[in-house]
Amino acid sequence: MMDRLLVLVRHGQSEWNLKNLFTGWKDPDLTEQGVAEAHEAGKKLKARGFHFDIAYTSALSRAQRTLKIMLDELGQPGLETVRDQALNERDYGDLTGLNKDDARKKWGEEQVHIWRRSYDVPPPGGESLKDTLARSLPYYMKHIQPDVLSGKRVLVAAHGNSIRSLIMAIEGLTPEQILERELGTGVPVVYRLGADSRPVSVEVLG
Length: 206
What we know:
Blueprint: E1 5-10, H1 15-18, H2 32-47, E2 54-57, H3 61-74, E3 81-83, H4 100-107, H5 109-117, H6 129-149, E4 154-158, H7 160-171, H8 175-179, E5 188-193, E6 199-204
Parallel strand pairs: 1-4, 2-3, 2-4
Antiparallel strand pairs: 1-5, 5-6
Helix pairs in contact: 2-3, 4-5, 6-7
């Protein structure tokens, strides 16, 4: 019986998460809490007896470090790992580096809310969730999904919006449904897929 196991993990808390800044493609490190979250995620996966065949992560260090910590906890520090910017966080454009409260003062509460929570309205110079999906979904379909369907057990450490876009595709959610989905930092989402690529089971190890 094939496992067809896919685990998605949003990176642990970053320094810019803590400061309430729009991060996007900038590359801050994890906070102490973020490091602890990554260790905890690895311990939870190990406690379930999970063992992986390949890992994927973004080109950003907060996701890569989260993955490394989890793999150390799993006793798999040398696991084959593929890094690609297709799994990067959404690019926040002109909002990048701004405090979210300062952005609200500059553009107004309603406009910033639209940029953060709409599906297809990008901030100036940046990406919408739809844009993020347009680069992450083809990558998933070409690389990650075939690995899972061939029976490999796959671990992905990425970002709130790139993981949201994968979840939207895997679960067949509408834009409205995915915008309501909250993803905790360092919390594994465990899928077992059927031969048709649809989820047989979903479990959040929160």
